[in-house]
Design a protein that fits this description.
Layout lengths: L1 E4 L2 E4 L8 H7 L18 E4 L2 E4 L12 E3 L24 H9 L8 H9 L3 H4 L2 H4 L11 H8 L22 H6 L14 E7 L5 E7 L1 H4 L4 E5 L30 E2 L5 E7 L2 H10 L1 E6 L6 H4 L26 E9 L2 H6 L3 E9 L11 E6 L5 E5 L4 H12 L6 E4 L16 H11 L3 E4 L2 H7 L6 E9 L5 E13 L5 H8 L2 H4 L6 E9 L13 H19 L3 H8 L24 H13 L11 E12 L8 E7 L18 E4 L18 E2 L5 E2 L4 E5 L8 H13 L6 E4 L16 H4 L1 H24 L7 E2 L3 E4 L2 E4 H6 L3 E7 L6 E12 L6 E10 L7 H20 L31 E4 L22 H13 L10 H9 L2
Parallel strand pairs: 1-5, 6-17, 15-16, 19-20, 26-27, 33-34
Antiparallel strand pairs: 1-2, 3-4, 3-5, 6-10, 7-9, 7-11, 8-10, 12-20, 13-18, 14-15, 14-17, 18-19, 21-32, 22-26, 22-31, 23-31, 24-25, 28-29, 29-30, 32-33
Amino acid sequence: MRIVVNGHAEEVAPRPGQCLRTLLRERGWFGVKKGCDAGDCGACTVHLDGEPIHSCLLPAFRAGGREVTTIEGLSGPCRPGQGAADRAPDALHPMQAAFVAAQGFQCGFCTPGMIMTAAALDQGQKRDLGTALKGNLCRCTGYRAIRDAIAGIAAAEAASLRDPIGRSVPAPAAPDVVSGRAAYTFDLAIPGLLHMKVLRSEHPHARIVAIDREAALALPGIVAIFTHADVPEARFSTGRHENPADDAPDTRVLDDVVRFVGQRVAAVVAETEAAAEAGVRALKVDYAPLPAVFDPDEAMRPDAPRVHAAVPAGADAPPLEARANLAAEAHGLVGDVEAGFAEADRVYEGTYRSQRVQHAHLETHGAIGWRDPDGRLVIRSSTQVPFLTRDALCTLFGLDRSQVRVVAGRVGGGFGGKQEMLTEDLVALAVLRTGRPVKWEFTRQEQFVATTTRHPMRVRVKLGAKADGTLTAIQLDVVSNTGAYGNHAGGVLHHGTNEVIGAYRCPNKRVDGYAVYTHTLPAGAFRGYGLSQTIFAVESALDELARDLGLDPYAMRRRNAVRPGDPMVSTSLEPHDVEYGSYGLDQCLDLAERAMAAPFGDPAPEGWRVGEGMAMAMIDTIPPRGHFSDARIGLGGDASDRGSPLPGGEGRGEGRDLSGMVSSLTPTLSRTGEGVRRGDGAPSGGAIYDLSVGTAEFGNGTTTVHAQIAAAALGTTPDRIRIRASDTDAVGHDTGAYGSTGIVVAGRATLNAAEALARAILTRAAAKAGVAPADCRLEADHVAVPGGRVALADLIAEGPLEAEGRADGSPRSVAFNVQAFRVAVHPGTGEVRILRSVHAADAGRVINPMQCRGQVEGGVAQALGAALYEDLRLDAEGRVTTQTFRNYHIPACADVPATEVLFADTHDSVGPLGAKSMSESPFNPVAPALANAIRDATGARLTETPFAPDRIFRSVGTR
C-alpha cells in the first residue's frame, strides 16, 4: 500500500496485526517511541492527516493512502535519519522551539509524543491542558515546564554565556530531543538482528522438573532456546554496587527453582519478535510446586518456607540459619532509649506502612548485543551503571574487561530501577552462543511483573520528648520486604534507617531493621533508597508529638534538628566521612514557613476542610562505601576513544595532565571562526573541547551541568564543550549514575580534569610566550599573555593537550529539603485537593537553576503519585495485578499542582563549585507533609500510603 510519511510517499506492506508505530520504527522513524503498548502513555503520538493519534493503537493498514507526520517531519518534509536538527537553526517547528526554550523535558523519552499532541492544540484546548494532555504521560518533569513550553514561557538562557555557573543553560541535547533525533537504546537499525522473548513462571515457588522445547524448536524462525541447563552455574546479584559483595549473590541467569510469579524460565531467540513469542507459547514446562510465603512477618517465623535454601550472604546479611528468610539486618544503639523514654513528658508510638511503587520510566528495560569487528562483545543497554554491568558480565562469562564494552544511549528515565542488571546477562549469553546481534526489549507488562519496585516497609516508631519539645529518645523497628531476591536489601535498609534519625539531635536512639525474603516480586533501588518510607513514619510521628505538646511543627524541627557543630549520629558513634560541607536547613524552614504564610494558592471549595502540613528530610550527598568517577578532556580533538584506566586519586580526587602523550593522540584541530558544529547541531566559533565521562544521562541533567563546569574552568562557554558519556570505552571507570552522584562525584571528576587541562594550556602558552604561567589568562580561543595573545590553535599545533580527572566520593556532605502543603479534603468522599505546594531545597550553589527546579518538581510529582494513588498490587498468590498504566495510576498533567521551589543560599565545600545533589531528596518529605496536612484538616492520622479517598473517608468517618 502507499503511505506518505513526512512528505514523502512510500510503498509498504504491513504484516497482519502490525500497528502503525512498529511499521514507522522499522522504517527508521525512531522519534516514534514505544512506552506502553496500549495507548496509555502517548509516547508514540503522530499526526494522521493532521490529527494526533496514538500510533500503537492504529492498525498499520489503516494508514494506507493517508499522510503521517512524525516528530522528525513536524517542521517540514524529511527522510529517515534526518530531522530538524540537521537543518537550519530556525527550522524547528514553533512548538519544538518552545520546548527547547522552556526546557520542557528531562529524560526526553515522552517529548516527541508530547510535542506532537501540543502542536495540534487550539487556543481553547491550551486553556485546559489537564484535559488536552490526558493521553500523554511524563514521569520526569512534574509538567510545569511542559505547561510553560505550550504557553510560550521561556526559561533557558544562551548557551554562549561566558559565566555559565548559576545560569539556566539549555541542555546540549535539546535540539535532538525535540526533533526526535536523540538516540535511545533501541533507536538504531542493525542488520541481521535476532529477537528474544522470555517464558516466565506461573508459580510463586516451584522446582522445574523438565522443559520440553521440541515443539518450539520446530517452529519457523527459531534460532535458539536457553534454559537453566544452558547457563553458567555462577550466582550474582542483579543489584549493582561498586563493591559486588554489598548484595547477596542469590540469582542465576536462569534457575531450576522459581521464586516469584514472573521469574524467567526460558529464553527464545528468533528471527522476528512474532516467531520468538510463538516459541515461548510452544514451550512446555513441568513444575513441582513448593510452599510459598508472601508476608515478611510470616516469613521470619522458624517454620516458614525458605525462599533460598543456602546462598552466600551479602555484606549486611546474617547467616541464613540465624533467622528464617533474613536477607539483611541493621541494628544500632546510642545512649539508653529506655531511660530516654522514662524522662520524657510525652511519648508517641505509631506503626506506618509504605506500599510497592513502580519506577514507571517510559523507556522500559532492554538491551541489544553484538560482536564488533574485533570480536568484542558490545552491549547497548538502558542502564544507569554501564561499568558495573560490564564487570558483572565479565565475571559471569569469564571474560576480560578488554573483551566487553557496555554503552548506554540516552536513557529514558531510571529513578534507581536501572541500577540493576535485568536484561544484559541473557542478551550477552545469546550473542555469545549465536554469534549474531540480539535484542531484548521489555513490554510494559513485563516492566510491571518482572522488574523491581520500591521496598514495601512496615515502620514502628516511638518518640519521647520533654514538655518544651526536646527529644529524649527515638526508636525504630523496620521490616522491609525485599521479595524473592536480595538486590539492594541491605543498602536500602541501612540507608533508610540512617539519615532519618541522624537529622535530629537526641541522646538516645535505637534501630532494629530486617530485610526479609518472600515469594514476591523483588524490590530494588528506588528514588530515596529507603528514606521515603522511614521519613514518612518519623515525620508523621514528630507531627503528632508536636500536636500533643501544643508546639508549632516548624518550631519542633528547629529545636531538634542537627546544626553545624553537632555530631551527626544515627545508630553508631563510629567515625564516618560525612561532614557539614554547608548547611541550609534553617533557611529551608524559614523559606517554606514564609511562603505558606503568603496569600497565595487556590481557594478551597465550599464545605471542604482545609489544613496545612510540613515535613523535612536530610540526605547524605553521596552513597557510602565508595563511589568513583573518571573524566577525560582534550582541546581540539576527539581524545575520548582511548579508555585506559586512570590512576587512583587521593581525597577528593585529582587531575592529571596528559599533554606529553603526543604519540598516542590524533587530535582534530578546531579553529576560531570556522563555525564548528557540536553534536547537538549548535553552531559555535572558537576552540572545541572534547569531554568524556562515564556517568549516564537519563533526565538528571548531568550532561548540561558537566558542560557548565568544564566551561567555567576553561574560560569558555558551555556550547564549546562536546560530551561523550556512559560508554565503558570512554574513560577508565565510573561507579554509576545513582545516589544523586552525577554532579557531586562525576562533576567533581570533570572539574578536576578541566582544571588540569587549563593548567597544561597555560603552561604551554607561557613557555611559548616566555612568561610565567601565573601571568597568563585562558580565554575562549586564546591565552592572554602580557603584551599579546597566543591562539589555542597554535598551541595544539605543537601537540595534543589533554588531561584526566578522578573523584572518589569522599568526604560526603548533607543536603536538606522541606515540603509544605495546604490541602482541602471533602469529608463526604475523602477526595484531596492540593491548594498550595511549597518546596525549599538546600542544593548548595545551584549550577543550573532551571534544571534543578525541574528535578525538584519532578521529585515532588512522583512522590505525590506514591502518596496518593500509585500502588503495585499483588493477589493472594503473589501475582502482580496492576500490569498497565490504566490500572496503575501515575500522575498526569491534571493531577499535579504547581509547586513553588525555593533554594537556600549555600555554598558547599565538598561538592564541585559549591554544588550539592538534588535528584533523590525532593521525593522524601512529600508523603509525611501531605499526611500532616490531611491530619490538620480532618483530625485523622493516616498511617498507610497511598492516601486513597476511601482510606481517608474511613479515617475521617471514625472521628
